[in-house]
Each structure stands twice: as structure tokens, then as C-alpha cells.
Design brief:
- This protein is α/β, with parallel strands linked by helices and 193 residues long.
- The protein has helices spanning 21-30, 53-57, 70-83, 100-105, 126-132, 168-190, and strands spanning 10-16, 37-44, 61-64, 88-91, 110-114, 137-144, 154-161.
- Strands 3-2-1-4-5-6-7 form a 7-stranded mixed sheet, with helices on one face.
- The chain is globular and about 50 Å long.
- The protein starts with 9 loop residues before the first strand and ends with a helix.
- The protein binds glycinamide ribonucleotide (GAR).
- Residues 16, 18-22, 51, 92-93, 113-115, 176, 179 line the site of glycinamide ribonucleotide.
């Protein structure tokens, strides 16, 4: 993907909708010397996202945007990101689907994390569907975002074993632990660090 030149880090925005545990792990990673990225903005589609608290804790600028009028908001956001020299976007539990136009403008520079072994179980209610299908394994995937949902090129995956009495909650927890390690690893991989 993008090659790291010089010592400046890739200015990155993280998009969230909820708890933001992946955001937290990305912020911690971004502060390490080996990180090729710096996190400049947190974007949320809802003021209720708990993860917005990390903006205050880590002194990162935040933007809460109502995606109801998607075209209008996305265009505003694109200009804002451009003006602020944001080069990469990490989706981390962001539950809105970005338009083709938006993705095109950031071609190859939007990453997402999904709590399944893609291409299996794209979309919502992943853990419920995995358990209903009596799968032996699930996991998580970091991938590039393209215009089709959860379908862009896979960067890294981590498999986890499903236990006998696994519930949606226990599986989600178990996979989140792996997500927190996988996202930084995937970023190091695309920058060849
Ligand atoms: C994570 O499990 C992430 O993989 C998932 O939402 C959770 C967000 O947790 N993302 C999706 O399902 C996107 N399709 P977090 O807010 O604690 O990072």
C-alpha cells in the first residue's frame, strides 16, 4: 500500500459507533515508536458512542456527525479530512456503510475490522449466526474497504476456537481480545514494518 517516507506518521482518523475498545488499542499502538500512524481524529455517527470518551482522555479531536443525510455529511467530512491532511481511515466498530463515492476518494486507504473469519459471516449478528451454525471456529479479520460490504482484500485474520458452552457474549469477548492485537499487526503489515 502506502510506503512510509521520512519520519512523519500517517495521519489517521478512526471511525466508531460504540464502546471503542479497538479505538483504545489503536491509540495505544499509535503512541509506540514503531507505529506508522498517528491518530488525529475520532469520528462517530452518534453522540452516544462510549468510545468518544477516549477523545478527552487522550486529547484527540472528535467529530460527531449525523449520517442521516449521508451524501451531504460525507462530502463535508471528505473536505474536513482533506483540509486536515488525513491520509488513512480505520473503521473500528463503525456501524454505518460508507458510500461508493467516499470509499473511492480514499481508495486503498480505509481499513476495517470485522468479528468473523471473512468471507464467512459478513454483516450483522455475526456471533449469533456462527453459533447457530455450530461452527467449531470463528475469529476476526482486518481488511481493506471496498464498495461491497466486508468484501475488500484481507490483510490479516486470527482464528479462535469455539468452546462447548460458548454464548454470543463470551464469543464476542474472546474475539475482541484478538481484535485488539490484530488491528495493529495488520497496520504494521501494510506498511511493511
Ligand atoms: C468489534 O467486535 C468489531 O469487530 C465490530 O464491532 C465491535 C466494536 O467493538 N465491528 C463490526 O461488527 C463491523 N461490521 P469496539 O467498539 O469495542 O471496538
Amino acid at each position: 500500500m502506502v510506503l512510509l517516507t521520512g519520519i512523519s506518521k500517517i495521519r489517521t482518523a478512526v471511525f466508531i459507533s460504540g464502546t471503542g475498545s479497538n479505538l483504545k488499542s489503536l491509540i495505544k499502538f499509535s503512541k509506540t515508536s514503531k507505529s506508522p500512524i498517528s491518530i488525529e481524529f475520532i469520528v462517530s455517527n452518534t453522540p452516544k458512542a462510549k468510545g468518544l470518551n477516549y477523545a478527552k482522555i487522550y486529547k484527540i479531536k472528535k467529530k460527531v456527525l449525523n449520517f442521516e443525510n449521508k451524501n451531504f455529511i460525507e462530502n463535508k467530512l471528505l473536505s474536513f479530512l482533506k483540509i486536515n491532511n488525513v491520509e488513512m481511515i480505520c473503521l473500528a466498530g463503525f456501524m454505518k456503510i460508507l458510500s461508493k463515492n467516499f470509499i473511492k476518494k480514499f481508495n486503498g486507504k480505509i481499513l476495517n475490522i470485522h468479528p468473523s473469519l471473512l468471507p464467512k459471516y459478513k454483516g450483522l449478528n455475526t456471533h449469533r449466526r456462527v453459533l447457530n451454525n455450530k461452527e467449531k471456529y470463528s475469529g476476526c479479520t482486518v481488511h481493506f474497504v471496498n464498495s461491497r460490504l466486508d468484501s475488500g482484500k484481507i490483510i490479516l485474520q486470527k482464528k479462535v476456537k469455539i468452546s462447548k458452552n460458548e454464548t454470543e457474549v463470551s464469543l464476542a469477548k474472546k474475539i475482541l481480545v484478538q481484535e485488539h492485537k490484530l488491528y495493529p499487526k495488520a497496520i504494521l503489515k501494510i506498511f511493511n514494518v
